[in-house]
Amino acid sequence: DVTETEEKEAQAKQEEQIMKEQELSNLLHEKRYLKALGLAISLDRPHTVLMVVKAILKETDGRRHLEENIIRLRKDQKEAVLAFLVTWNTNSRNCHEAQAVIEILLRHEAPDSLLQYAGIKSAVESLLPYT
């Protein structure tokens, strides 16, 4: 019988999830946006990533800060953000943030490196009608 072991594992995962969410909340409160972006991406929370992007843009000189944070993300994190912003771009309330991130990616990534992103073809196809 492995029920008890599975229950302990599930409880440990749930506790870890709660700890990560608390850490994310603390990072946002402390305005440590790069770590907050990374954690929200790792938790696969598109809405939270959007909230971080919006918080950065509200800051003084927000565009520059957003650019600095997006550039410092790893390639896999940028791929995740690209996938998230495809959805953001379809909503008029979030399209400006999506366009800001797209602009940063297009200005700072070489076309050849963008072509290496997972799902870039479908992302571009989905972005074109709304952009």
Report what the structure shows.
Residues 21-131 form the U3 small nucleolar RNA-associated protein 13 C-terminal domain. One of its GO terms (molecular function) is U3 snoRNA binding. Its main location: nucleus. It comes from Geococcyx californianus (Greater roadrunner). InterPro entries: Utp13_C. The chain is mostly helical. The protein has helices at 3-29, 33-42, 46-58, 62-71, 75-88, 95-108, 111-115, 120-127. Helix 3 (46-58) packs across helix 4 (62-71). The chain contains eight helices and no strands. The protein has one domain. The longest helix has 27 residues, at 3-29. Helices cover 77% and strands 0% of the residues.
User: Structural class, please?
Assistant: mainly alpha
Gyration radius, rounded: 17 Å
* Unreliable stretches covering 5 or more consecutive residues: none
Instruction: Return the string of H and E elements.
Output: HHHHHHHH
Strand share of the residues? under 5%
Q: How many DSSP-defined strands?
A: 0
On the 0 to 100 scale, the average pLDDT is 91
The tally of helices reads 8
Total tally of structural domains = 1
Principal-axis shape equals globular
